[in-house]
Prior knowledge:
Elements: E1 4-6, H1 12-21, E2 27-32, E3 37-40, H2 45-54, E4 62-67, E5 77-78, H3 99-112
Antiparallel strand pairs: 1-3, 2-3, 2-4, 4-5
Amino acid sequence: MAIAVIDGKISRQELTDIAKQQFGNFVKAVVDIERGIMAIGGELHADEEALLIERGSEQEDLWGINLYPEKGGEDFIEFDSMVNLRPSQGNTSRGVEDPKTRESIREVVTERVPQ
Length: 115
């Protein structure tokens, strides 16, 4: 599947279909918390990140996550990606350490993927 930039809405069913084509039960995504968009469908978070940067996003605003469309609540979003390793921004793990940044990511995902 080609990487898609989501600036509108995408259903959980569409995410489920994408997951089945790729990794089985999850979809990799990179969220731009400043622009309120996300890229999905890449084999690597780095590919999605590169596409968003090419389209005007700033790397400091981009965070990698995994979406599990068949799960709900806290289990829907997994904050885990190599693109999140950013010691210069105070993020020293694959996760997203700052609670405000995690909340910003959740807000974008909730807007783009309605329950």
